[in-house]
Design brief:
Blueprint: H1 2-10, H2 14-17, E1 20-22, E2 24-29, E3 32-37, E4 48-50, H3 53-65, E5 78-84, E6 87-93, E7 96-99, E8 103-105, H4 112-116, E9 120-121, E10 127-135, E11 146-151, E12 154-160, E13 165-173, H5 181-190, H6 193-199, E14 203-204, E15 209-211, E16 217-218, E17 222-223, E18 226-228, H7 243-261, H8 268-293, H9 297-309, H10 311-321, H11 339-352
Parallel strand pairs: 2-11, 8-18
Antiparallel strand pairs: 1-4, 2-3, 5-6, 6-7, 9-16, 10-13, 10-14, 10-15, 11-12, 12-13, 17-18
Helix pairs in contact: 1-7, 7-8
Bound molecules: flavin-adenine dinucleotide.
Amino acid sequence: MPAGVAVVERLGLAEAVGGAPFYGVRYHFGGQTAEGRFPKTLGLPEAGRGQRRKHLDAVLFNTATATPGVRVHTGAMVEAPIRERGCVVGLQVNGRLWPSALVVAADGAHSRIRHLLGLDRPAGRKRLGVRAHFQLPPGLEQPPWVDVFVHPGYELYVTPLPHGEVLVAGLAYAESVRGAVEREFHRWWHSQPVLATRLERAKQITRLMATSPLAGRARMGVVPGIVLLGDAAGFLDPITGGGMSQALMTAELLADYVSERLGADQRWLWEFERERQRMLRDYKILTRMLLWLANYPRLAERLLPVLRASPKLFSHLVGVSGGVRRLWGQAKIPWTLTSGRRDRLEASNAHMH
Ligand SMILES: Cc1cc2nc3c(=O)[nH]c(=O)nc-3n(C[C@H](O)[C@H](O)[C@H](O)COP(=O)(O)OP(=O)(O)OC[C@H]3O[C@@H](n4cnc5c(N)ncnc54)[C@H](O)[C@@H]3O)c2cc1C
C-alpha cells in the first residue's frame, strides 16, 4: 500500500524492492465493477506496489545485515522471553539465554512470545486465507489495480507482480469452506468469468498455501522490556490489504523512539504505543467495517453503485486503507510519517509554499 511504499522509499530501498505499481482497488460483484483510485496526498506515493514477500524480506534482511552494529543469527528458534520482576530482560533461544535492553517481538499474528507473556486476546469468528502465484502467458498483464472479486462466502484478491506474475489470494469465513481448500479455491476463481479468462492460460507457479485463523489480538502491544511489532501486536484480517504497510510504518516509528529514548526509563514505551494506536486507528475501523460487510454480501452489492457514483468518497476510503488518509477530517500529512520526520516535512512544505 502507498504508506508502506513511502517507508521503503524513506529507507532508500525503493529501487531494490521494485514491484509492480497499482493505482488503487477495483471491486467486482456480479456484473458490476467500481474503481477506487488512491488519492493524491502531498509528499506520498500515489501507487501501491505488488511484490513477492520473499523478495521484500531478502532486501530488508540484507540491508539489516550490512548495517554496522547488527549481528544476525539465522535458524534461531525463540523459545521464550526471560522475565525478572515483571520486566522482560532477554530471550531464550535454542536453550541459550540472550540478555537484551529491549526485545522486539515480530513473530507474526500467532506470536508465541505474546502468548507466553499472557497478552493474547480472544479473536472473533475464524477466517481462512489461501494464496497461490500464477505466471501469465506472454502478452497478458494484470492491469495496474488490485482486483477484488466479491462473492457471497468468499473474496478473491488479485495483485500485479513483476515479470508477468500475479498473486491470487482468497479469504472466507472458515465455517463456510466445506470441501478441500484446494478444490474450493479453484471453484472460486473459476466461477469469476473475468478472472477465469485471465488465468485460463496462466501457470500456477507456487503451491497453494492456507492459514487459519487469520486474526491474532493482543491485550497490549508493550510491556516493560518488550515491544510487539507487526502482526504480533494484533492483526484483524487481510481484507484491507495493509498488513505489510502497518508493519513497516510502525517499525519506522519504533526505530525513531528507540534511537532517541533507549536507555532512559521505559515510559516512552507507552508513548510509542499511544502513537502507534493513533496511527492505525482509522485503518482498523475500516477493516472492522469491511469485515462486518463481508457478512452481508447483498448489502455490499448494493453499495457498489454508490461508490461508483461517488469516486471522491471511494478514493478517500481506498486512501484510508492505503494509509495515506484519515477517515474523518481534512487530508493532511498523515501518521505515516513519524513525528520528527513529519515536523521536518511540514517545515519544508511551508517553505515550498
Ligand atoms: C492470505 C493472506 C493474504 C495477505 N495479503 C496481504 C497483502 O496483499 N498485502 C499486505 O500488506 N499484507 C497481506 N497479508 C498480511 C501480511 O501477510 C501480514 O500482515 C504480514 O505478514 C505481517 O508481517 P510480520 O512480519 O509482522 O509477521 P509474519 O510475516 O508472520 O512474520 C513472522 C516471522 O516470525 C517468525 N517466527 C515466528 N515464531 C518464531 C519463533 N518462535 N522464533 C523465531 N522466529 C519466529 C516466522 O517464521 C516469520 O518469519 C496477507 C495475509 C494473508 C493470511
